[in-house]
Amino acid sequence: AVKVLTTLRNHWKKTTFGVCLLSWGGHWLYGKHCDNLLRRAACQEAQAFGNELIPSSMPLKKATVFLNPAACKGKARNLFEKNAAPILHLSGLDVTVVKTDYEGQAKKLLELMENTDLIIIAGGDGTVQEVLQELWPGSLRIAVFSKIPIGFIPLGKTCTLSNTLYPESTNQVEHITNATLAILKGETVPLDVLQIKGEKEQPVFAVTGLRWGSYRDAGVKVSKYWYLGPLKTKAAHFFSTFKEWPQKHQGALMYLGPTERPPEEPEEKPPRPPLYVRIYRRLQLYWASRPKEIPQEVAPEDWEELKLSTIELSIATRNRQLDLTRTEDFMDICVEADTVSKGQFVNRGSQKMRDPHVCPEGSQCIQASRCILQLPEGTEGSFGIDNEEYEAMPVEVKLLPRKLRFFCDPRMREQMLRAAAQ
Q: Which intervals hold domain DAGKc (predicted)?
């Protein structure tokens, strides 16, 4: 023992390195063991759903999974197959996995969607937007597509929706298994969608929002400074201040105020009335539709107009702060002041990376159901729409309230209802 201690003391550098290596290895192995326990517990819970008896005449529920293998720097496929796929198969779902290997592939699968009971999006913000973009305006009517519940399995680098749908977790395996189990439990919440229409005919759909400004431009360059480690965010915003300062984004904004939320539509349609009742109603409608008086002119919509000079403009849904009992439908427009010092810009940039649509103190906050953003001719730059980059141009943004139903963790739904009651 004395000889061993002497040897270790004489080679203290190697000893220190060995101890550190063994400690790291032990911690890594323990983490893998904990992940396996989480997977096993999730699979046992899913097995309970799979063991439930169903009538022989009832077909299995069909689930279509849109998996983006490129998400999370190419790790998404492995993450899905290890953590989510076993749970889905054990639950008794008839699962079809579609890999979105190239842009536009989802559009070719519209005929598959006609026979699916639920959609599962496995990826990040970009995957969610691609599925909405390709499937929603297609041959399926919006009303039909809106009734198909959607599950979201967070596998991407940015997964904004997971903050609303699932409890916060620092363990990636736990986060993925919780999201997959939430799909099986069946609780859903309605989410708003933004329809963003520019000069092109095809609109863009977003579940989070649109950003235009200096914080967004600096944020997309953060990865270039990876070699600075934890300082990369501040570095990207600091070097951004070397441009013309103060940075102003100018334009004009026209908007309409919030709209009243209509009552919930009934889940089941009433039975079709007898033939004689339908004939009577058609005759009644025909006579009622004949012109009797000169119709009154419809009052013009009350548009508000605002001149913009801002360091950043954001137009966001209320999905981040979901209120299931609110009586009005609107989106949040945040016009940030352009009188920001360089120090404030750098400090606020870090906050914006964590919550891109936060509205800082001193900003002008507007609630609107529809807006038109007009830009001066020759305006350069880009929009960030659900963390995807689009060319900056004049756009009309329209709120489509409660258009999609997403599966959520029952604990989160209960938390939303409890917060609304207080």
A: 58-200
Domains of the chain: 22-49+58-186 (3.40.50.10330), 209-262+300-403 (2.60.200.40)
Closest CA to 140 of 388, 386, 404, 319: 404
Helix axes 232-240, 342-354, angle to 10 degrees: 140
Cβ 214 vs Cβ 345: under 8 Å: yes
Angstrom distance (rounded) from CA 41 to CA 288? 63
Percent of the chain with pLDDT over 70: 87
CA dihedral 37, 91, 173, 355 (to 10 degrees): -150
Name the band, by pLDDT with cuts 50, 70 and 90, for residue 407: very high
Count of C-beta atoms within a 10 Å radius of residue 214: 26
What letter represents residue 322's amino acid?
L
Taking only the tens place, the pLDDT of each residue in 300-353 is: 578 899 999 999 999 999 998 888 888 899 999 999 998 889 999 999 988 888
Place of tokens 């600096």: 218
Q: Where are the beta strands (DSSP E) in 198-316?
A: 204-206, 209-213, 249-256, 259-260, 304-310, 312-316
Supply the pLDDT for residue 235: 92
Give residue 221's Cα distance to chain centre: 22
List Cβ neighbours of 28 (8 Å cut-off, separation of 6 or more). Answer: none
What SS3 state is found at 63?
Answer: strand
The structure tokens listed for 151 are 């599950």
Pairing of strands 304-310, 249-256: antiparallel
Ramachandran region, residue 349 (left: φ > 0; alpha: ψ -120 to 50; beta: rest): alpha
Q: Which residue bears the tokens 């913009």?
A: 308
